[in-house]
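Entry 14. Ran structure prediction on the chain below.
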Amino acid sequence: MTKDEASLALLEDESEKVRYWAAWALGMIRSEGAVESLLVLLEDKSARVRARAAWALGLIGAKRAVEVLPALLDDESEEVRASAAGALGAIQGEGAVEILLALLDDESEEILDRAAWALGLIGEKQAVEGLLALLDDDESERVRDSAALALEAIQGEGAVEILLARLEDESEEMRARAAWVLGLIGEKRAVESLLALLDDESGEVRANAVGALGLIGDERAVEGMLALLSRTEWWRFGPLNLRACDWAYGTVLKILAHHVADPGIVPQPPVLESDVIIGPWGKGLS
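Output, C-alpha coordinates:
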Protein backbone atom coordinates (compact mmCIF):
# COMPACT_ATOMS: atom_id res chain seq x y z
CA MET A 1 0.00 0.00 0.00
CA THR A 2 1.41 3.41 -0.99
CA LYS A 3 1.48 6.41 1.34
CA ASP A 4 -1.34 8.02 -0.66
CA GLU A 5 -3.47 4.90 -0.33
CA ALA A 6 -2.80 4.76 3.39
CA SER A 7 -3.86 8.38 3.83
CA LEU A 8 -7.00 7.81 1.75
CA ALA A 9 -7.98 4.93 4.00
CA LEU A 10 -7.52 7.16 7.05
CA LEU A 11 -10.12 9.61 5.70
CA GLU A 12 -12.72 7.03 6.75
CA ASP A 13 -11.27 6.46 10.23
CA GLU A 14 -13.60 6.72 13.23
CA SER A 15 -11.31 9.27 14.86
CA GLU A 16 -11.95 12.93 14.03
CA LYS A 17 -8.29 13.66 14.65
CA VAL A 18 -7.15 11.00 12.19
CA ARG A 19 -9.55 12.15 9.46
CA TYR A 20 -8.42 15.74 9.99
CA TRP A 21 -4.71 14.99 9.65
CA ALA A 22 -5.24 12.62 6.73
CA ALA A 23 -6.99 15.45 4.84
CA TRP A 24 -4.15 17.79 5.79
CA ALA A 25 -1.51 15.36 4.49
CA LEU A 26 -3.30 14.77 1.19
CA GLY A 27 -3.72 18.49 0.68
CA MET A 28 -0.06 19.23 1.36
CA ILE A 29 1.07 16.68 -1.24
CA ARG A 30 -1.71 17.85 -3.60
CA SER A 31 -2.96 14.32 -4.18
CA GLU A 32 -5.33 14.39 -7.15
CA GLY A 33 -6.34 10.83 -6.35
CA ALA A 34 -7.85 12.04 -3.08
CA VAL A 35 -10.39 14.42 -4.63
CA GLU A 36 -13.37 12.04 -4.57
CA SER A 37 -12.80 11.08 -0.93
CA LEU A 38 -12.26 14.70 0.11
CA LEU A 39 -15.52 15.71 -1.58
CA VAL A 40 -17.30 13.14 0.57
CA LEU A 41 -15.57 14.53 3.63
CA LEU A 42 -17.18 17.93 3.01
CA GLU A 43 -20.26 16.39 4.66
CA ASP A 44 -18.36 15.08 7.70
CA LYS A 45 -20.06 15.54 11.08
CA SER A 46 -17.01 17.42 12.35
CA ALA A 47 -16.72 21.08 11.37
CA ARG A 48 -12.93 20.89 11.75
CA VAL A 49 -12.80 18.01 9.28
CA ARG A 50 -15.14 19.71 6.79
CA ALA A 51 -12.97 22.81 6.91
CA ARG A 52 -9.76 20.85 6.41
CA ALA A 53 -11.26 18.91 3.50
CA ALA A 54 -12.22 22.17 1.78
CA TRP A 55 -8.73 23.54 2.44
CA ALA A 56 -7.16 20.41 0.93
CA LEU A 57 -9.33 20.58 -2.18
CA GLY A 58 -8.21 24.16 -2.66
CA LEU A 59 -4.54 23.23 -2.50
CA ILE A 60 -5.08 20.37 -4.93
CA GLY A 61 -6.92 22.70 -7.31
CA ALA A 62 -9.87 20.34 -7.71
CA LYS A 63 -12.11 21.93 -10.33
CA ARG A 64 -14.97 19.56 -9.43
CA ALA A 65 -15.10 21.08 -5.97
CA VAL A 66 -16.30 24.41 -7.35
CA GLU A 67 -19.73 22.82 -7.81
CA VAL A 68 -20.09 21.87 -4.13
CA LEU A 69 -18.00 24.39 -2.18
CA PRO A 70 -20.62 27.18 -2.49
CA ALA A 71 -22.97 25.10 -0.33
CA LEU A 72 -20.42 25.30 2.50
CA LEU A 73 -20.70 29.08 2.51
CA ASP A 74 -23.94 28.56 4.44
CA ASP A 75 -22.34 26.16 6.93
CA GLU A 76 -23.01 26.82 10.62
CA SER A 77 -19.25 26.91 11.23
CA GLU A 78 -17.37 30.11 10.41
CA GLU A 79 -14.20 28.05 10.00
CA VAL A 80 -15.88 25.94 7.32
CA ARG A 81 -17.26 28.97 5.50
CA ALA A 82 -13.85 30.65 5.51
CA SER A 83 -12.09 27.53 4.25
CA ALA A 84 -14.62 27.17 1.44
CA ALA A 85 -14.07 30.78 0.39
CA GLY A 86 -10.31 30.31 0.38
CA ALA A 87 -10.59 27.09 -1.60
CA LEU A 88 -12.71 28.78 -4.26
CA GLY A 89 -10.00 31.38 -4.69
CA ALA A 90 -7.25 28.78 -4.92
CA ILE A 91 -9.14 26.64 -7.46
CA GLN A 92 -10.27 29.61 -9.56
CA GLY A 93 -12.99 27.62 -11.27
CA GLU A 94 -15.89 28.94 -13.31
CA GLY A 95 -18.35 30.86 -11.15
CA ALA A 96 -15.91 31.35 -8.26
CA VAL A 97 -15.48 35.06 -8.89
CA GLU A 98 -19.17 35.90 -8.64
CA ILE A 99 -19.47 33.94 -5.40
CA LEU A 100 -16.42 35.61 -3.86
CA LEU A 101 -17.57 39.08 -4.90
CA ALA A 102 -20.83 38.51 -3.06
CA LEU A 103 -18.89 37.58 0.07
CA LEU A 104 -17.36 41.06 0.27
CA ASP A 105 -20.64 42.13 1.90
CA ASP A 106 -20.39 39.46 4.63
CA GLU A 107 -20.32 40.55 8.28
CA SER A 108 -17.69 38.01 9.35
CA GLU A 109 -14.10 39.20 9.62
CA GLU A 110 -12.85 35.72 8.74
CA ILE A 111 -15.00 35.52 5.61
CA LEU A 112 -14.08 39.02 4.44
CA ASP A 113 -10.41 38.23 4.96
CA ARG A 114 -10.51 34.99 2.93
CA ALA A 115 -12.69 36.44 0.17
CA ALA A 116 -10.39 39.44 -0.24
CA TRP A 117 -7.16 37.50 -0.60
CA ALA A 118 -8.87 34.88 -2.78
CA LEU A 119 -9.93 37.58 -5.23
CA GLY A 120 -6.41 38.97 -5.15
CA LEU A 121 -5.03 35.52 -5.90
CA ILE A 122 -7.34 35.24 -8.91
CA GLY A 123 -6.46 38.78 -9.98
CA GLU A 124 -10.07 39.75 -10.47
CA LYS A 125 -10.36 43.39 -11.56
CA GLN A 126 -14.12 43.40 -10.91
CA ALA A 127 -13.28 43.20 -7.21
CA VAL A 128 -11.48 46.55 -7.05
CA GLU A 129 -14.47 48.61 -5.95
CA GLY A 130 -15.46 46.19 -3.21
CA LEU A 131 -11.88 45.84 -1.98
CA LEU A 132 -11.46 49.60 -1.84
CA ALA A 133 -14.50 49.74 0.44
CA LEU A 134 -12.83 47.23 2.78
CA LEU A 135 -9.86 49.58 3.19
CA ASP A 136 -12.18 51.72 5.30
CA ASP A 137 -13.07 48.86 7.65
CA ASP A 138 -12.89 50.53 11.07
CA GLU A 139 -13.00 47.30 13.07
CA SER A 140 -10.45 44.97 11.48
CA GLU A 141 -6.83 45.64 10.60
CA ARG A 142 -6.70 42.10 9.25
CA VAL A 143 -9.43 42.81 6.68
CA ARG A 144 -7.81 46.10 5.68
CA ASP A 145 -4.44 44.40 5.17
CA SER A 146 -5.96 41.60 3.07
CA ALA A 147 -7.85 44.10 0.93
CA ALA A 148 -4.68 46.12 0.36
CA LEU A 149 -2.69 43.02 -0.55
CA ALA A 150 -5.41 41.86 -2.94
CA LEU A 151 -5.54 45.25 -4.66
CA GLU A 152 -1.78 45.17 -5.17
CA ALA A 153 -1.92 41.64 -6.60
CA ILE A 154 -4.72 42.61 -8.98
CA GLN A 155 -2.46 45.24 -10.54
CA GLY A 156 -1.00 42.39 -12.58
CA GLU A 157 2.53 43.12 -13.71
CA GLY A 158 4.91 43.29 -10.78
CA ALA A 159 2.48 41.58 -8.40
CA VAL A 160 5.07 39.00 -7.29
CA GLU A 161 7.61 41.74 -6.59
CA ILE A 162 5.02 43.51 -4.47
CA LEU A 163 4.28 40.32 -2.54
CA LEU A 164 8.01 39.74 -1.97
CA ALA A 165 8.35 43.26 -0.61
CA ARG A 166 5.39 42.69 1.70
CA LEU A 167 7.34 39.92 3.43
CA GLU A 168 9.16 42.78 5.18
CA ASP A 169 6.02 44.80 5.93
CA GLU A 170 5.58 46.30 9.41
CA SER A 171 2.22 44.52 9.76
CA GLU A 172 2.54 40.91 10.89
CA GLU A 173 -0.80 40.12 9.25
CA MET A 174 0.54 41.42 5.94
CA ARG A 175 3.77 39.44 6.24
CA ALA A 176 1.81 36.29 7.07
CA ARG A 177 -0.65 36.73 4.22
CA ALA A 178 2.05 37.53 1.66
CA ALA A 179 3.99 34.43 2.70
CA TRP A 180 0.98 32.16 2.25
CA VAL A 181 0.02 33.59 -1.14
CA LEU A 182 3.59 33.19 -2.41
CA GLY A 183 3.44 29.58 -1.28
CA LEU A 184 0.14 28.99 -3.06
CA ILE A 185 1.51 30.27 -6.35
CA GLY A 186 4.74 28.28 -5.88
CA GLU A 187 7.03 31.27 -6.20
CA LYS A 188 10.62 29.96 -5.88
CA ARG A 189 12.06 33.46 -5.73
CA ALA A 190 10.51 33.75 -2.27
CA VAL A 191 12.42 30.83 -0.71
CA GLU A 192 15.29 32.81 0.83
CA SER A 193 12.95 35.47 2.22
CA LEU A 194 10.60 32.82 3.61
CA LEU A 195 13.51 31.07 5.32
CA ALA A 196 14.39 34.36 6.98
CA LEU A 197 10.83 34.56 8.32
CA LEU A 198 11.34 31.36 10.31
CA ASP A 199 12.86 33.65 12.95
CA ASP A 200 10.06 36.24 12.74
CA GLU A 201 8.77 37.53 16.07
CA SER A 202 5.21 36.60 15.04
CA GLY A 203 4.02 33.01 15.43
CA GLU A 204 1.49 33.55 12.63
CA VAL A 205 4.23 34.67 10.25
CA ARG A 206 6.51 31.77 11.18
CA ALA A 207 3.71 29.26 10.68
CA ASN A 208 2.74 30.65 7.28
CA ALA A 209 6.38 30.78 6.17
CA VAL A 210 6.76 27.10 7.01
CA GLY A 211 3.56 26.21 5.15
CA ALA A 212 4.59 28.27 2.12
CA LEU A 213 8.00 26.58 1.95
CA GLY A 214 6.23 23.24 2.04
CA LEU A 215 3.99 24.19 -0.86
CA ILE A 216 6.93 25.46 -2.92
CA GLY A 217 8.95 22.31 -2.16
CA ASP A 218 12.40 23.72 -2.89
CA GLU A 219 15.35 21.73 -1.50
CA ARG A 220 16.94 24.95 -0.23
CA ALA A 221 14.37 24.83 2.56
CA VAL A 222 15.67 21.55 3.98
CA GLU A 223 18.47 23.02 6.08
CA GLY A 224 16.18 25.67 7.56
CA MET A 225 13.46 23.14 8.33
CA LEU A 226 15.92 20.79 10.05
CA ALA A 227 17.27 23.65 12.13
CA LEU A 228 13.76 24.62 13.13
CA LEU A 229 12.82 21.08 14.06
CA SER A 230 15.90 20.79 16.29
CA ARG A 231 14.63 23.57 18.56
CA THR A 232 13.01 21.82 21.50
CA GLU A 233 10.74 24.74 22.31
CA TRP A 234 9.03 24.45 18.93
CA TRP A 235 7.63 21.10 19.92
CA ARG A 236 5.87 22.43 22.97
CA PHE A 237 2.17 23.09 22.84
CA GLY A 238 1.40 26.79 22.51
CA PRO A 239 -0.32 29.39 20.33
CA LEU A 240 0.61 28.86 16.67
CA ASN A 241 3.67 26.72 17.47
CA LEU A 242 1.46 23.68 16.99
CA ARG A 243 0.64 24.58 13.40
CA ALA A 244 4.21 25.65 12.62
CA CYS A 245 5.67 22.39 13.90
CA ASP A 246 3.12 20.25 12.09
CA TRP A 247 3.80 22.04 8.83
CA ALA A 248 7.56 22.02 9.39
CA TYR A 249 7.56 18.27 9.88
CA GLY A 250 5.35 17.68 6.84
CA THR A 251 7.40 20.13 4.78
CA VAL A 252 10.74 18.54 5.46
CA LEU A 253 9.43 15.02 4.85
CA LYS A 254 7.91 16.08 1.54
CA ILE A 255 11.11 17.78 0.35
CA LEU A 256 13.42 15.06 1.59
CA ALA A 257 11.35 12.44 -0.21
CA HIS A 258 12.37 14.09 -3.47
CA HIS A 259 15.90 15.24 -2.71
CA VAL A 260 17.46 13.11 0.06
CA ALA A 261 18.13 9.37 0.04
CA ASP A 262 17.77 8.89 3.80
CA PRO A 263 14.70 10.63 5.30
CA GLY A 264 15.71 9.08 8.63
CA ILE A 265 17.80 12.17 9.31
CA VAL A 266 14.63 14.10 10.17
CA PRO A 267 14.46 14.75 13.93
CA GLN A 268 11.48 12.98 15.47
CA PRO A 269 9.18 14.93 17.82
CA PRO A 270 9.95 14.05 21.45
CA VAL A 271 7.29 12.69 23.78
CA LEU A 272 6.58 15.47 26.23
CA GLU A 273 6.01 14.89 29.92
CA SER A 274 2.55 16.40 29.68
CA ASP A 275 -0.44 14.59 28.20
CA VAL A 276 -0.37 16.87 25.15
CA ILE A 277 1.60 15.67 22.13
CA ILE A 278 1.19 17.82 19.09
CA GLY A 279 0.02 17.17 15.58
CA PRO A 280 -0.46 13.87 13.81
CA TRP A 281 1.61 11.99 16.34
CA GLY A 282 -0.47 12.48 19.48
CA LYS A 283 -3.57 13.69 21.23
CA GLY A 284 -5.88 16.55 20.49
CA LEU A 285 -6.32 19.21 17.84
CA SER A 286 -5.32 22.78 18.37
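The two ends are 30 Å apart (CA to CA). Will compare against last week's run tomorrow.
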